[in-house]
Write a structure and sequence with these properties.
The chain is α+β, with helices and mostly antiparallel strands. The protein contains 8 helices and 5 strands.
Length: 189
């Protein structure tokens, strides 16, 4: 990995013992969820992937550096794919964004400033920077909330799932310092 991720005191890190345990866990359940999430995002937020234009043909690796896996994103508007793979099996990519999981989630929710994270070296970008910038702008434009998106996966039961999911996210976010929802995020960097 090129670049160095600093130990920024405001960015929570996933516990090493938890990450080590996840290293032995099968990725199939996570991939079922991320696959459904990508399909749902394309349906609920068509502009997210369409806004990428030519960059939608690129392959991205989203690398939570404190986890034992990475996410491969192929943001094709007609059939986006998001899959977790073991870091050593990441394969070829056009662009890579790496940083602690909390920072990556915080970027989605607007809790962290991407430029500040980049210049503090808490975020590493490699490869096609124009593609990363297009992806960042598309995500920022949609103002995604991952708790809302996860609740939407429950289809007709989404409204029933939303309230407990939001409460759980607020509780866990309060305990860990991770902006698990857009509503919990201020600007930390």
């Amino acid at each position: 990995m090129t670049g160095c991720v600093s130990d920024h005191p405001l960015i929570p890190r996933f516990p090493r013992t938890g990450a080590a345990a996840l290293g032995f866990a099968p990725l199939l359940p996570l991939n079922l969820a991320t696959g459904r999430l990508a399909t749902s995002l394309a349906r609920r937020h068509p502009g997210l992937f369409e806004r990428l234009g030519d960059q939608a043909a690129k392959n991205f690796v989203i690398d939570p550096t404190d986890m034992p896996f990475v996410f491969r994103l192929a943001p094709r508007p007609e059939a986006p794919q998001l899959r977790a793979v073991r870091r050593e099996s990441a394969g070829a990519w056009d662009a890579r964004v790496a940083g602690p999981l909390a920072a990556l989630i915080g970027l989605v929710h607007g809790a962290y400033d991407g430029d500040a994270l980049f210049f503090s070296r808490d975020l590493v970008i490699e490869g096609d920077t124009a593609a990363v910038l297009a992806l960042r702008n598309a995500i920022d434009n949609e103002e995604l909330d991952l708790v809302e998106e996860a609740s939407a996966l429950f289809g007709p039961l989404a409204l029933l799932a939303a309230r407990p999911a939001s409460r759980l996210a607020a509780l866990v976010g309060g305990l860990t310092g991770v902006a698990l929802t857009r509503r919990s995020g201020g600007s930390f960097a």
